[in-house]
Amino acid sequence: MDNLFSSSWFFYLESQLRKLGLDSDDKSFDEIREMLSNPKKLSMDEFAFTVFYVILAGGFSQKTAKKIHQVIMQKIPENPSIDDLLKIFNNKNKINAICKIWNNRQNFRDGFYSCKSLDEKLLYLQKLPHIGKITANHLARNLGENVVKYDIWIQRLGVLYGGNSRMAQKIDNGKLDVEIKKCCDDMFEHLEKETNLPRGYIDVVLWKSAQNGLIKELKNGC
Which of 2, 8, 1 has the alpha carbon at shortest distance from 191? Predict the structure, then answer.
């Protein structure tokens, strides 16, 4: 597809993901777009389930994360033991985090909505069990905040957009380089103008496209 980072390029990627049945994160593309356009306050259970997904998604495929997430959502209201949950997903650190979130879901949910600014919300989410700086952005987006997750795929795209291949060696999923962040932010600002869509939605489409090999230029570059 020609015209990288144009509106036609973006909408082509979006259409391909829909055709392949890959148009989702924890929610469908349409649900994500609606939530980012018209954010709503979640109940304490909805808040907890949203955090669960982001915890489970780290290091696992979406298919695996969604499957485990569904089972845990059905099971946890029954107040199962940690051992019962470990039978579903044998990762003690993540299960302990999920239990802490569930047992304190009202306080965590109220704490998030009491934050006055986006920066406050992101800092707050970073303090939740098993949520780090990058996953805090992922979680914030899934909670309806118009932010992006600067994961390794988005960093690679930012470097491609910036046209400076030397920056590729600075790509780091644990520590975001300021130059790469600037390239990513410039890319999102450009695509917001091109598509008239929220950057949080643009983020999930680009991330899924890169992850699934639809952006061929990444194979030859970063």
Answer: 8
Q: Half-sphere exposure (CA, 13 Å, Cβ side) for 213?
A: 1
pTM of the model: 0.86
Given a contact cutoff of 8 angstroms between Cβ atoms, the answer to whether 36 and 141 are in contact is yes
Q: Tokens 């899924």 — which residue?
A: 208
Instruction: Compute the distance between CA of residue 67 and CA of residue 13 in angstroms, rounded to an integer.
Output: 25
Q: Give the tens place of pLDDT for each residue, 35-71.
A: 999 989 999 999 999 999 999 988 777 778 888 999 9
Report the largest interatomic distance among the alpha carbons of the chain, rounded to a whole angstrom. Answer: 54
Q: What are phi and psi of 121, to 5 degrees?
A: -65, -40
Alpha-carbon distance of 179 to 166, in angstroms, equals: 11
